[in-house]
């Protein structure tokens, strides 16, 4: 039975798609069967991050509307036998699609994977409200600045209102130098503002941008400093005790 991880944020551009794709690869590298579902309808990007956009034909909405089977809609990145993607539709969902339909779609996949990772849009879309009700773990991705942290706190409240209470924070694009100089929020402060336990810290890394633009994971290129951060996050998701690096 799959554990469903919802990757969300209040503010846009915090790194949800980056976390979804690389965490998906990291868990698949640990031998887990992983399905990524892009629910950022209208603004999808996970297909590009995974390097499969040329092969995507159907979306999760096509599966819900029975225009395609889930198998038809799944695409796999190269050299990733355990990792699958179902992409988002070109337009945001409307209330014409019910929660029951979305929940039946997810239930049909439940026994086939160890993890289902939901890459959300920023804020609280209809898609996020539906998938939050089905998820077991919420992962809020924020950058270490006041606006992003306040919005992460708000996002956590909205997830809790939807019944998703097992929520964590990933702090992304951290620049240790700025923390040392007291010019950026530190990790303890981020946890205080958001009331969220920390699942991981990812430093600012131009290698991530290069990989994402090439449709590759950080694991497919040499010398990407943030690689270990994604491996550690995957291990924590698997229940292992891995200490967070200290940057204060
Ligand atoms: P979201 O899905 O939250 O909108 P993305 O994952 O698409 O955000 O990331 C937005 C941009 O930030 C992308 O260009 C991505 O490559 C870049 N990015 C994300 N995380 C990092 C990081 N740790 N270091 C450098 N660039 C990053
Ligand atoms: Mg995104």
Give the overall form. globular
Distance between the termini: 39 Å
- Number of helix segments? 11
Order of helices and strands: EHEHHHEEHEHEHEHHEHH
Our estimate of the beta-strand percent is: 15-25%
What is bound: which ligands?
A: adenosine-5'-diphosphate, magnesium ion
The poorly predicted ranges are none
The proportion of residues forming helix, as a percent range, comes to: 25-40%
Mind describing the biggest β-sheet?
8 strands, mixed
- Rg result: 17 Å
List the strand order in the largest sheet.
3-4-2-5-1-6-7-8
Report mean pLDDT, rounded to a whole number: 96
Tell me what the structure shows.
By secondary structure, this protein is of the alpha/beta class. It has eleven helices and eight strands. The protein starts with a strand and ends in an 11-residue tail after the last helix. Strands 3-4-2-5-1-6-7-8 form an eight-stranded mixed beta sheet, with helices on both faces. It is globular, with a radius of gyration of 17 Å. The mean pLDDT is 96. The protein binds adenosine-5'-diphosphate and magnesium ion. Adenosine-5'-diphosphate binds at residues 9, 12-18, 45, 172-173, 202, 204-205, 208-209, 212, 226.
Brief digest:
The chain has 11 helices and 8 strands. It has helices spanning 16-29, 46-49, 60-64, 70-73, 99-107, 126-134, 146-161, 176-180, 187-194, 206-213, 227-237, and strands at 3-9, 34-38, 74-75, 83-86, 115-122, 137-142, 167-174, 198-203. It has an 8-stranded mixed beta sheet with strand order 3-4-2-5-1-6-7-8, with helices on both faces.
């Amino acid at each position: 039975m799959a554990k469903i991880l919802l990757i969300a944020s209040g503010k846009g551009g915090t790194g949800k798609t980056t976390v979804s794709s690389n965490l998906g690869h990291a868990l698949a590298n640990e031998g887990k069967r992983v399905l990524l579902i892009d629910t950022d309808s209208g603004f999808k990007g996970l297909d590009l991050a995974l390097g499969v956009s040329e092969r995507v034909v159907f979306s999760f909405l096509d599966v819900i509307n029975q225009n395609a089977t889930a198998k038809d809609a799944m695409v796999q990145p190269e050299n990733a036998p355990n990792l699958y993607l179902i992409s988002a539709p070109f337009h945001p969902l409307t209330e014409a699609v019910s929660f029951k339909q979305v929940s039946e779609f997810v239930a049909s996949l439940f026994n086939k994977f160890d993890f289902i990772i939901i890459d959300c849009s920023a804020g609280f879309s209809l898609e996020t409200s539906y998938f939050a009700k089905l998820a077991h773990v919420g992962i809020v991705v924020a950058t270490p600045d006041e606006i992003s942290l306040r919005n992460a706190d708000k996002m956590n409240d909205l997830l809790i209102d939807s019944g998703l209470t097992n929520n964590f924070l990933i702090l992304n694009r951290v620049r240790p130098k700025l923390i040392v100089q007291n010019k950026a929020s530190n990790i303890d402060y981020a946890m205080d503002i958001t009331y969220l336990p920390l699942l991981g810290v990812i430093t600012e890394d131009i290698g991530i941008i290069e990989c994402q633009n090439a449709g590759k994971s950080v694991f497919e290129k040499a010398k990407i400093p943030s690689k270990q951060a994604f491996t550690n996050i995957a291990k924590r998701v698997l229940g292992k005790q891995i200490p967070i690096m200290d940057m204060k």
